[in-house]
Amino acid sequence: MSSFSTNEKIRNIAIIAHVDHGKTTLVDAMFRQSGLFRHGQQMDERVMDSMDLERERGITIAAKNCSVVYQGVKINIVDTPGHADFGGEVERALSMVDGAILLVDASEGPLPQTRFVLQKALKSKLKIIVVINKVDRKDARTSAVLDQVYDLLIDLDANEDQLEFPLLYAIGRDGVAGEAPDRLADDLHLLFDAIVREIPPPRFDDESPFQMLVSDLGYSDYLGRLAVGRVVGGKAESRHRLIRIDANGSHRPLKVTRLQLYEGMDITPVSTVSAGEIAILSGIDEVSIGDTICTEDAPFALPRITVDPPTVSMLFTINDGPFGGKEGRYVQSAKIRERLLKETLLNVAIQVETTGDRDSVVVKGRGEFQLAILIETMRREGFEFCVGRPEVILKEADGVVKEPVERLFVDCGETFMGVVTEKLSVRKGKMMNLTNTGTGRVRIEFSIPSRALIGYRDEFLTDTRGTGIMNSYFLGYEPYRGDFPSRFTGSIVSDRQGHAVPYALYNLEPRGRLLIQPGEPVYEGMVIGEHNRETDINVNPTKEKKLTNMRASGKDENVILAPIRPITLEQAINFIRDDERVEITPKSIRLRKVTLGLKARYVQRGAKK
Asked: What's the rounded mean pLDDT across residues 514-518?
């Protein structure tokens, strides 16, 4: 009869929270106080945010592993993203841990992503430690936030054990924690003690053979593909012959060339890995997230990691415009498809589907922000391509078309409540709750189709003068709520190729908002601005002032144009309509029509009528 044991020298935890509630900053403090960095050593802020995009945007995009040692116990930490679009990263991260630290802002309280990640943690039956962070904020309301945490847990059907959670208060930036907001210790030893005391150690069967669930993938120039995951049972040594069980149940033999474990931010080679460890295996040619690595004698597959289905799709095509291939290094459709398929191996929430056209593929994900991050990453790698407008993925059940619906939370000033409510109602949003906080701000909850939020965020910030806060989480599928206009303005489209001239742009300014600077190259079918009216307008941005012998050549040429703010990738993706594309190169972001020729667009428009 098999007996179970625990590895008391290991704790595996995830840190989960909403965006900007201080996860990565808290991990920095844990690093400093665990002795990982020597006294006086220079240490970057948010050391776990290793990607350039993460440092630029101040958010965590990919879940990352590290470890610290406290009183002889190794604590493996997984820092998870806080944005709803990266929920796939959260789901695979939670498959490696036995407990989670739920971080909540002392002023903002639990927000939509807090609900999302907490629901996943409770479903996985993880032990929760609640830490109310940023208690030094002037607008901190710790008691009200604690009540909101209890309400959230009850709403998520938490059992009595989960409601009896350990509670700490902290200032992650200063690296201090305590049992009361006004009684903080000088360091984080209370948090470390709570982790060792409350988080259960890994439990395993003494007689079970080696089994490991692949939860993450990596790549090394020297070792090749790396498989990262938690060892569920047994031991493995270097040069051991194992097998990999894929999604189809096929058995593929493999030979482990090196075993590694996390030590701080680094990885260290070891001769043996045992149950409970988060290990890194090399020597595997092909592997996917969710595969099981085990022995040939006991080929039993572990339950695969399941993630929520994607809700948004986007078309990726080659750049077939006049400037195609001039700025990018990888422009062929085969290279673009290969890169996207590689992304599906590293990101379980991304799916790629082929179309009838060999030059285009459809990419599916959790949200337009997740796809925008993928596009920006590919752009920096030297890829050049075009993308279409994000579209929600509809489902059909019992003859009824259903669409993804989200719960939207809006926090704005009372004076902006009217315009926000009006615009969301036009987009088929239904108000579910309204709370006046008594501070001049209101909190409104809406049930709204996911497609209504595509392109609305920038409009929302404009309507609320930049003071509004908008968050949402995926609610489920509901019957299709009907059509609504996605954009109330048309496009200003160039009718020829050349370079934009200040004189021409000056005369086009009354027609709408321009998106290009003088001197920029343009081509026929390129969108150069937003028209004031609903219809598109074709213009000549290369037109120069006609000179006569009555004027000097420099006369009246010094026009002053309104300053033009360069359009960002997210703004471009949200701005385009169904008949438009975003042309993306390492150097430029341009908007264009799908059909570039002016006459061809007239023919298409006539055929539709």
From this structure: 89
- Kindly state the percentage of the chain with pLDDT values over 90: 6
Q: Are strands 167-171 and 127-133 parallel, antiparallel or unpaired?
A: parallel
Q: Kindly tell me if the per-residue pLDDT of 1 is higher than 70.
A: no
N- to C-terminal Cα separation, the chain: 76
Report phi then psi at 380, rounded to 5. -70, -20
Lowest-confidence segment of 104-113, 269-278, 546-555 by average pLDDT: 546-555
pTM of the model: 0.76
Write the pLDDT tens digit of every residue in 492-503. 999 889 999 888
Burial environment of residue 513 by CB neighbours within 10 A (0 to 12, 13 to 18, 19 or more)? middle
Contact 317, 362 (CB under 8 A): no
CA–CA separation, 514 vs 531, rounded Å? 9
In 420-576, DSSP assigns E strands to 430-436, 441-449, 469-479, 491-494, 498-499, 512-514, 521-522, 526-531, 537-539
How far is C-alpha 375 from the geometric centre of its chain's CA atoms? 12
Q: By the 8 A CB rule, do 321 and 523 touch?
A: yes
Q: Show the beta-strand stretches assigned E in 111-210.
A: 127-133, 167-171, 176-180, 183-184, 203-205
